[in-house]
């Protein structure tokens, strides 16, 4: 079969002679039509981060990435019932394998879900990152009138903005923070109220110019109720990590910081505001099973537009080019077609 083979940082190749996988007991075999390049794939592509969790090895020695994809069921493993060959599905492996013609997927509600009519395979391949955004918003427990900051408006951060709007939470402000103008423009297009470029100066100063400053016994803040850190720590980026800036922005008592973005190694950070402000800091990894279904339902009803976030498509034969394009500043989601 055709597949992508991740070799080392900055090197990924197309293969056309990989051994076809077989659906084990409790699995289905999915014939993939579209697979997204995830931000975690880029961390790996830059410096090998998370490699052990992002590739699936073939008997031929190939390392196949890709964990957010859509296609049709090609075969049923032993003991599988309630599913049929030919059904259109979203698959989530969590351990790579999706950038290939065929991939085995366990049958459970966290990893396999039907695609409703009216949703294309390319749109459906963005279901997993959208579900991630829905979980983050659920965890933040936002209330009407609160002010929100979203660090990093790639596919995950944009999904957070879409989730807030689709769930009808009447927040006072959604402030998108990024270093790329194209992504900030997209954030405004889908529902952010303000866009802040970290390239234009201190983020705290820019955000507080919008929301005001709170200064007291518990320290200084920009009156932000919730921060979504969808950027994490990218080693080559200059300036303080977003988590450090989030601690400065967040309000005293009651502030929440939701961490999702990957960390490319250890970092130095000022944790003083944790004691002063007593924020709630929580990680978010994945989604509830029902949020996969919710993401697809939102697409079907037109409550969110995921097509506008697919900025480029490449055939799997051009996998090296696809990763190079995804690394460009003006890209949100590059879709690999098989």
3D architecture notes:
By secondary structure, the chain is α/β, with parallel strands linked by helices. The protein has 11 helices and 19 strands. The chain has helices at residues 39-47, 51-54, 121-124, 127-140, 155-166, 181-190, 203-211, 242-249, 272-277, 289-301, 319-326; strands at residues 3-8, 11-15, 27-36, 56-57, 63-64, 68-76, 88-92, 102-106, 112-114, 147-151, 173-178, 194-197, 214-216, 219-221, 226-229, 256-259, 280-283, 310-315, 333-337. The strands form 5 sheets. Strands 3, 6, 7, 8, 9, 18 and 19 form a 7-stranded mixed sheet that branches.
- The structural class is alpha/beta
- Beta strand count: 19
Would you tell me the overall average pLDDT?
A: 95
Helix content class? 25-40%
Question: What is this structure's SSE topology?
Answer:
Layout: E1 3-8, E2 11-15, E3 27-36, H1 39-47, H2 51-54, E4 56-57, E5 63-64, E6 68-76, E7 88-92, E8 102-106, E9 112-114, H3 121-124, H4 127-140, E10 147-151, H5 155-166, E11 173-178, H6 181-190, E12 194-197, H7 203-211, E13 214-216, E14 219-221, E15 226-229, H8 242-249, E16 256-259, H9 272-277, E17 280-283, H10 289-301, E18 310-315, H11 319-326, E19 333-337
Helix pairs in contact: 4-5, 4-10
């Amino acid at each position: 079969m055709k597949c992508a083979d991740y070799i080392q940082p900055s090197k990924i190749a197309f293969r056309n002679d990989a051994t076809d996988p077989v659906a084990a007991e409790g699995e289905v075999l999915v014939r993939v039509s579209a697979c997204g390049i995830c931000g975690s794939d880029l961390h790996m592509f830059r410096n090998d981060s998370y490699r052990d969790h992002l590739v699936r090895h073939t008997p031929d020695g190939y390392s196949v990435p890709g964990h957010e994809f859509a296609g049709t069921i090609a075969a049923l493993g032993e003991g599988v019932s309630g599913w049929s060959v030919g059904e259109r599905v979203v698959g989530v492996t969590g351990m790579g394998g999706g950038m290939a013609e065929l991939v085995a997927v366990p049958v459970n509600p966290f990893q396999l879900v039907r695609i409703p009519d009216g949703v294309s395979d390319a749109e459906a391949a963005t279901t997993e990152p959208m579900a991630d955004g829905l979980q983050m918003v659920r965890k933040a427990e936002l209330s009407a009138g609160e002010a929100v900051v979203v660090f990093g408006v790639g596919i995950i951060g944009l999904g957070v903005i879409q989730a807030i709007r689709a769930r009808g939470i009447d927040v006072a402000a959604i402030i998108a923070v990024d270093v790329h103008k194209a992504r900030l423009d997209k954030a405004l297009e889908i529902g952010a109220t303000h866009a802040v470029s970290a390239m234009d100066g201190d983020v705290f100063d820019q955000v507080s110019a919008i929301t005001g400053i709170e200064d007291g016994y518990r320290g200084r803040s920009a009156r932000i109720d919730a921060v979504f850190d969808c950027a994490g720590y990218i080693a080559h980026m200059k300036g303080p990590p977003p988590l450090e800036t989030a601690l400065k922005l967040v309000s005293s008592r009651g502030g929440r910081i939701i961490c999702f973005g990957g960390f490319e190694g250890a970092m130095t950070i000022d944790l003083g505001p944790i004691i002063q402000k007593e924020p709630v800091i929580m990680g978010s990894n994945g989604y509830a099973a029902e949020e996969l279904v919710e993401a697809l339902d939102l697409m079907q009803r037109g409550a969110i537009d995921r097509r506008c976030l697919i900025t480029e498509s490449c055939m799997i034969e051009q996998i090296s080019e696809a990763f190079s394009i995804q690394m460009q500043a003006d890209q949100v989601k590059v879709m690999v077609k098989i």
